[in-house]
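Researcher: Let's do a round of design. I'm pasting the structure tokens now; please hold your answer until I've finished.
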């Protein structure tokens, strides 16, 4: 701890405080949306995704997340949509935190980071972001 400051807090330059308070300069805490989760998409082998898959461009296509609390298999279910087409779900083992945050108003979106057909299963790697 600084011997000149018993609280342990750093001293702030008064000139800097004046510039910030006058909005001469500003700080952007979040330059980018926050990466909240990396996962695969669950449930793709149960859907007919052959046509819509062609439109999904990794690292570019944005997906919508939609809570599905009435889901009989998972009360924290989060459906992934592209142009109102269901692509699957965030896996049950990874969805609880994001579901709870969505339930209190936080907004998320996802991007497919990679995709590959493995038999009739469309493996999609997913990045979920918290909107700024």
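Researcher: That's everything. Go ahead.
Model: Designed sequence:
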């Amino acid at each position: 701890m600084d011997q000149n400051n018993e609280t342990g807090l750093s001293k702030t330059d008064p000139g800097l405080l004046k510039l910030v308070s006058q909005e001469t300069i500003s700080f952007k805490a979040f330059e980018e949306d926050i990466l909240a989760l990396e996962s695969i998409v669950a449930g793709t082998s149960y859907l007919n995704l052959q046509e819509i898959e062609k439109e999904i461009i990794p690292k570019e296509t944005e997906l919508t997340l939609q809570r599905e609390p009435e889901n009989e298999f998972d009360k924290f279910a989060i459906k992934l949509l592209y142009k109102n087409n269901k692509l699957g779900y965030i896996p049950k083992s990874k969805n609880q935190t994001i579901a709870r945050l969505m339930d209190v108003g936080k907004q998320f979106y996802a991007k497919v980071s990679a995709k590959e057909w493995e038999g009739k299963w469309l493996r999609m790697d997913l990045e979920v972001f918290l909107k700024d």
